[in-house]
Write a structure and sequence with these properties.
The complex is a heterodimer. Chain A has ten helices and eight strands. By secondary structure, chain A is an alpha/beta fold. The chains are: A alpha/beta, B alpha+beta. The complex binds thiamine diphosphate, iron/sulfur cluster (SF4) (3 copies) and magnesium ion.
């Protein structure tokens, strides 16, 4: 830990300043929004993982969460709505030595971009997908999302959501993800550890981070920012390796957090190279050629 | 340092001391750092920052144990702690009001 003399007149440097485009700070996220905390955990994990940051790219879609790509001081792409995963897939296929981090929102990744998620997981595309799940479309004013809990209020469900939300870890597992975890923005150390682990692991990794959107979700559901954090504290049940089918989001029942899936199977590129690019296999990754 | 149960080796535990740095003009006044500091070392300042928010202020500098929780929960990169070179001596944990 660097030491900063108290007498220094210079503005002290935040330990993550080297990974942030500080000229764009303060960011656009509202007071009490959890995206900044998840983003900060992601940056801390990038540092802790020891991966080559010169060969690491962050890709986001559209939404408040999608703004992350614009704040990280790495190569990054802010793509069109729902298309972060296919964009990252293209980057990975064209340049397999890159580490791909997709950082985006629940609406972006699971509504408009839902099919891309499914197929990237099925292919075991080598990337780490971090979903900030704030239970609604924050950026556009708080519409119902595929992740909004049953009976929760939103601008488009003023009397309560009649639909049931996705169980995201179950979906990721069922589609073929090889690493699946869920934390909240209050469980920052666990969240950071999971992101670190996922970054170091090959294959399709998925981390869901529950996060408050006080301005659009909280306001309509009578939850002040701190109420949401208290809810995470009270309702969290940490259960590593829990059966993914039990992980639906129901704040009455309690929210199960943990690392659920951590397994190994060949990635898309490994299969692809074996069949279509054997020359690359011989040059770069001889151990796969057995 | 307060304990729920005094550890048997309390007299040998080194409790670290932290120095908190606050980048006031980045703060949006969410209060998360204040609420979740395990030592209640922070409070809202009465003054306003450039954007009109009340940033936190350290009210109990001697209590900070450099746990970094304020730093990692802050959505704004506005607060962090560093290790104070002069760390509490072994045994101090015990002599403080243990419960
Ligand atoms: C093709 C297209 N359709 C719709 C929109 C409008 N739009 C912008 S952000 C957004 C939802 C974002 O929700 P989420 O991904 O959960 O991000 P959040 O703002 O909640 O972090 C929508 C529908 C758009 N920008 N582009
Ligand atoms: S609208 Fe919601 S998700 Fe978007 S920045 Fe504000 S609090 Fe965060
Ligand atoms: S480092 Fe820990 S003890 Fe010190 S002010 Fe921050 S949260 Fe409180
Ligand atoms: S957590 Fe950060 S933004 Fe919130 S009050 Fe503390 S310093 Fe300000
Ligand atoms: Mg959202």
């Amino acid at each position: 830990m660097q030491e900063i003399p108290m007498t220094s007149k210079k503005q002290p440097q935040h330990p993550l300043d080297d990974l942030i485009r500080t000229d764009r700070i303060p960011h656009i996220w509202c007071p009490g929004c959890g995206i900044g905390t998840v983003f900060s955990a992601c940056l801390a994990a990038l540092k802790a993982s020891g991966i080559n940051l010169q060969k690491t790219v962050m890709v986001s879609g559209i939404g408040c969460s999608g703004r992350a790509a614009g704040y990280v001081k790495l190569d990054s792409f802010h793509t069109t709505h729902g298309r972060a995963i296919p964009f990252a897939t293209g980057l990975k296929l064209a340049n397999p030595e890159l580490n791909l981090v997709v950082f985006s929102g629940d609406g972006d990744l699971f509504a408009i971009g839902g099919n891309h998620f499914i197929h990237a997981a099925r292919r075991n595309m080598d990337m780490t997908v971090i979903c900030v799940n704030n239970l609604n479309y924050g950026m556009t004013g708080g519409q119902v999302a595929a992740t909004t809990p049953y009976m929760a209020k939103s601008t488009t469900t003023p009397a309560g959501n009649p639909e049931l939300p996705f169980n995201l870890p179950l979906m990721a597992y069922a589609c073929g993800a090889t690493y699946v975890a869920r934390w909240t923005m209050l469980h920052i150390r666990d969240l950071t550890d999971s992101i670190t682990e996922a970054l170091c692991k090959k294959g399709f990794s998925f981390i869901e981070a529950l996060s408050p959107c006080p301005v659009n979700y909280g306001r309509r559901n009578k939850q002040k920012p701190l109420d949401m954090l208290k809810l995470y504290q009270e309702k969290a049940i940490i259960k590593n390796h829990a059966d993914p089918s039990t992980l639906d989001i129901d704040f009455e029942k309690g929210i199960i957090l943990g690392k659920f899936i951590d397994l190994d199977r060949p990635t898309f590129i490994e299969h692809y190279d074996k069949i279509y690019r054997p020359s690359r296999l011989q040059e770069n990754v001889p151990e796969l050629n057995s | 340092m307060e304990f729920w149960r005094v550890p048997l080796d309390a007299d040998t535990i080194q409790v670290s001391l932290g120095i908190v740095h606050i980048l006031e003009d980045r703060c949006k006044g969410c209060g998360y750092c204040i609420e979740y500091c395990p030592k209640q070392a922070l409070e809202f300042s009465t003054k306003f920052n450039q954007k009109g928010y009340h940033p936190p202020v350290v009210i109990k500098p001697d209590e900070c144990v450099n746990c970094h929780y304020c730093e990692i929960i802050c959505p704004e990169f506005a607060i962090f702690s560093v290790e104070c070179p002069q760390t509490t001596k072994p045994g101090q944990a015990e002599t403080n009001h243990a419960i």
